[in-house]
Amino acid sequence: MRVLLIEDDPMIGKAVQQGLARAGMAVDWAHDGREAELALAQHVYDATVLDLGLPRKDGLEVLITARARRNNVPVLIVTARDAVSARVQGLNAGADDYLVKPFDLEELIARVRALIRRHAGTGVATLESGALIVDPVNRNVTLHGKRIELSAREFAILEALMRNPGAVMSREALEEAIYGWHQEVSSNAIEVHLHHLRKKLGADVIRNVRGVGYRVSGPE
Q1: What is the pLDDT of residues 96-121, one digit of tens each?
Q2: Pairwise CA distance, residues 58 & 31, whole Å
Q3: Longest C-alpha distance within the chain, in Å?
Q4: Cβ atoms within 10 Å of 87's Cβ, excluding its own
Q5: Can you spell out the DSSP letters for 61-107?
Q6: What is the reported pLDDT for 124?
Q7: What gap in Å lies between CA 10 and CA 5, rounded to an integer?
Q8: Is this prediction's pTM over 0.85?
Q9: What are phi and psi of 45, to 5 degrees?
Q10: Residues of the chain with pLDDT under 50
Q11: Is 187 exposed, middle or buried (0-12, 13-18, 19+ CB in 10 A)?
Q12: Quick check: helix, strand or coil at residue 16?
């Protein structure tokens, strides 16, 4: 999962970035409204954590602009503006959830995950395909009831595929889903991780659609 964090406070931003990363998410951090708009225009995100009091362009304006451009990324507003009128304004502008500072980091992470689930049209926390079950919260993978140990990158790739059941994802799409701005990616990194994944899960679980990409087929 790839998340855009929009926050100008360096202390809060660093804590949220590290917390989301520990939860297995790739995080891009925009420090002002203009940088956030550029990121939203150029990249696809699973969710956005948005502060309102931003330099260069207010967070509410960033949200309004994104929705006007038909960008339907799930948005969690995280702000010190705690008046009911501010919450109503944010939700009416297109936010999906609203959290007031100070906040508990675990609650923020749980809300981000809930937004992503709702956006995908499912209320359940686990992802399932046949006998394959992925638990993103606890970072567990089981196949036919047996736990499978995966590296962080392998888990991220599998989760991205499982969140798009039946869809073929190209190498570029997988890179976009699991790597942030400043992470160096070798040309064959995705293929290497997929090779290890298919050895652990079986080639029938992750299918290679030649010339197009990969998809989860799910063992019976």
Answers
A1: 999 999 999 999 999 999 999 888 76
A2: 12
A3: 54
A4: 17
A5: HHHHHHHHTT----EEEEES---HHHHHHHHHTT-SEEEESS--HHH
A6: 67
A7: 12
A8: no
A9: -120, 150
A10: 220
A11: exposed
A12: helix
Strand order in the sheet with 97-100: 26-30, 2-6, 47-50, 75-79, 97-100
Q: At what angle do helices 189-201 and 152-162 cross, to 10 degrees?
A: 80
* Cβ neighbour number for residue 34 with a 10 Å cutoff: 14
Instruction: Please give the pLDDT value at position 218.
Output: 57
Structure token pair of residue 79? 């702000």
Number of residues that this document lists for the chain: 220
Based on its alpha-carbon atoms, the radius of gyration of the chain, rounded to whole angstroms, reads 18
Residue-wise DSSP of 173-204: HHHHHH--TT----TTHHHHHHHHHHHHH-TT
